[in-house]
Amino acid sequence: MTFKSAVGLLRALGPKAEPAATTIELGGIAIEVVRKDIRNIHLKVCPPNGSVRISAPLRTNLDVIRSFAISRVDWVKKHQQRMRERPQSMPAEYVDGESHFLWGSPYLLQIRETKASAKVELIGGRLILDVRAGTKYRKKRALLDEWYRAKLMEALPELTRKWERLTGVIAGRLSVRRMKTRWGSCNTRTGHIRLNTELAKKAPECLEYVLVHELVHVLEPSHNHRFKALMDGFMPEWRSWRAELKK
To answer: Second label for 55, Cα 20 to 30 Å away, from 20, 63, 81, 224?
Structure first.
């Protein structure tokens, strides 16, 4: 019996619901288990520290989840090792001379002290951040985050209309916010698509890829062969942009 069929049988039998969230440990690996209104079990190794999360259907028996996790332990360890070996980028400090990106192109950050309202603007190859003297790190980051969010919201209407027409899928709603572990997400029942503000720093094609990826999830919720076939049909080069985002 496959894991998918085991989950289906247990749901059909109507087992007692497990807690919505719990943690299991296998071979020294702590795995967060979160139950959601989904059909299949999904496992994810999350950057930057390699934490592990399993999403499972609401009434899935914990023994089924544990068996699934055991079958994936070697895969988890391999990906955790890759994350440990991957060079870590230095976090931004929001000071003069830092390199910040917009649509894949680098700009040197310049902090200008002002008594006027704070603002962000591009002048030549510089990203100018006007702030009051003594402005703290968090405020500077919030200002730039909002600026990146605005850039995404400017780009999305035309891009969304294009891909709604090509895919035949209408996005129920689009929202943009800072995300720690995902480039995007989609509620397949409502069509609500969320995108990461960090996409404004990547090449425009990366934003296009993530948008198409989430629209296709309305047609196919999982990452199975049908999903990949749909992606190949709509955007044949999607794998190269996925690789670019993983760098």
So the answer is: 81
CB 62 within 8 A of CB 76: no
DSSP H helices, 97-195, are 137-167
The position carrying tokens 């990146």 is 148
Q: What does the DSSP 8-state code read for residue 236? A: T
The span from the CA of 35 to the CA of 26, in Å, is 19
How far is the C-alpha of 117 from the C-alpha of 153, rounded, in Å? 22
d(CA 104, CA 194) in angstroms, rounded, equals 21
Q: What is the pTM of this model?
A: 0.66
Q: What share of the chain is helix, strand, coil (3-state, %, to 5)?
A: 45, 25, 30
Among the listed residues 161, 151, 169, the one whose alpha carbon sits nearest the alpha carbon of residue 213: 169
63 CB contacts (<8 Å, ≥6 apart)? none
Please name the residues in contact with 224: beta carbons below 8 A apart, sequence gap of 6 or more.
none
Burial category of 243 from C-beta neighbours within 10 Å (exposed 0-12, middle 13-18, buried 19 and up): exposed
| Predicted pLDDT at 37 | 87
DSSP β-bridge partners for residue 123: 126
5 φ/ψ angles, rounded to the nearest 5 degrees? -70, -35
Residue 68 neighbours by CB distance under 10 Å? 20
> What is the C-alpha separation between 202 and 212, in angstroms, rounded?
16
Q: Reduce the DSSP state of residue 74 to 3 states and report it.
A: helix
Task: Summarize pLDDT for 162-191 with one digit per residue, the tens.
Answer: 999 999 999 988 999 988 889 999 998 899
- Helix, strand or coil, per DSSP, at residue 99: strand
Tokens of 11: 């749901």
